[in-house]
Specification:
Blueprint lengths: L1 E8 L6 H9 L17 E7 L2 E7 L9 H12 L6 E7 L6 H16 L4 E7 L6 H12 L6 E4 L8 H11 L18 H17 L8 E10 L2 E10 L2 H8 L4 H18 L3 E9 L7 H6 L4
Parallel strand pairs: 1-3, 1-4, 4-5, 5-6, 8-9
Antiparallel strand pairs: 2-3, 7-8
Helix pairs in contact: 6-8
Amino acid sequence: MKSGQLAILGRPNVGKSTLLNALVREKIAIVSDKPQTTRNLILGVGHYPEGQLILIDTPGLHTPHHRLNTQMVQSALGTLTQSDVVYMIVDSQVLPGPGDRQVMEQVTTAHQERPFQGVFLLLNKTDAVAKSRLLPLIDQYRTWFPWSEIIPISAKTGVNLPQLVELTFACLPSCPELMYDDDFLTNQPMRHMAAELIREKVLEQTYDELPYAVGVLIEEFQEEPGLTSIRAVILVEKTSQKGIVIGKKGLRLKEIGQSARIDMERLFGMKIYLRMWVKVQEGWRDNVQVLSELGYG
């Protein structure tokens, strides 16, 4: 059997969390078309006949402007020192840019200090790109680094993911025993996953109105036979944002709650009673205490 830790890196909004969910074959990370959706390191384990892929989904690397963003970037870079294989993901719909170059520089530096067993370049979202555009893109990226493999994929549709898994296991060493039990999928507590599912639904419902200024704090997570009660506070930074989340006559908040509850019940395998409030907390993204309470400390 084989096993190893894989760091999934890339600039924001290239499909890192979608790839994690696809390789674990369960939704353990929230996804959104908005950049910087992922804020924490998320560990997921993919179980295969060859062994285990221990996948670390990281926040997108970007130039931070708040304490929250700084912690996100630092946590992403910290995974490199402990990883056996790196997946660098790029968006095949766009040309290489400064953000991709920044990620590549970090990978190069880490590789020089401690060589990885494999560094894969994954051109994601190929389901939305003409094949004629991929070859020039691959040629351009090929000059950046001595990649172990360059693989066009679609994390959304599964294109070339079996090939990616096969080539990844070929890089990994054999191990006497696997690290995780067969039924282990993620190290995320249910409390944290509940908060993330609520935040995902807020992002879906509010579109471009407040992509970054939302946090979710779980004040109560009470498990009882047959029912789990959750009380959550949605944090925003301005009074106007509170109105956006609540919506006309509270309808948007109600829709957020219903959608989040359905996902929680499916993922947790239990009935959920969910109550939510919206609170204005100015400057929470730079507040050390609030960030710690939200699990970003």
